[in-house]
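In this notebook, the sequence line spells out the residues, with the fold written below as integer tokens. This is how one looks.
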Amino acid sequence: MSTAQMVALGGVTLVAAMSPGPDFVIVTRSAALSGRRAGMACAAGIAAGVFVWSVVSAVGVAGLLAASAVAFTVVKLVGAGYLMLLGVRALLAARRGEYEVEAEAGASGPSAWAAFRQGLLTNLLNPKVAVFFLALLPQFVPEAPSALDTLTLGVISAVVGLVWFTVLANVVNAVRGVLARPAVRRAIDTAMGAMLVAFGIRVAAQAS
């Protein structure tokens, strides 16, 4: 790949990463409730998912997924279910509203490992990511890409996603003093929970 191609791929991937979606929501929620470490762990999970999707797209596996209605539907429904599960959990947390008790007990939002897992699964179980890379990557690789070409694609895509979501996590953490207030936390859980459920419904309803 030429330098111009690398820059172009990074730019397109950045625009896609900055678009509001499930990844944006879970990084924001993780950083708001648990701080920088969880937010960055969630960002790392998303980057790992992006790396996997970009590599499997480059070698053609994502094409098989997109071509198979059954496989696409399975990934779509599992991903939609996972998003709705996260959303329902957030809504239940908002309904309980035990934030002051949790703060006194030292409890918080998701741990760093849980945040990483949420970022990874949210990205891997989103078939739209596979379709995005399937449409994008053929413009940047030869017909028979080498292992180095495939690795380069994955690294560029993952690094761009990691940088953007790490910046987002740190921005959210900078105002965490306000976000950690019980009333604000309840509002965050309500809003983020509703958004995740809505994203899940949209993923489930999208055509294969």
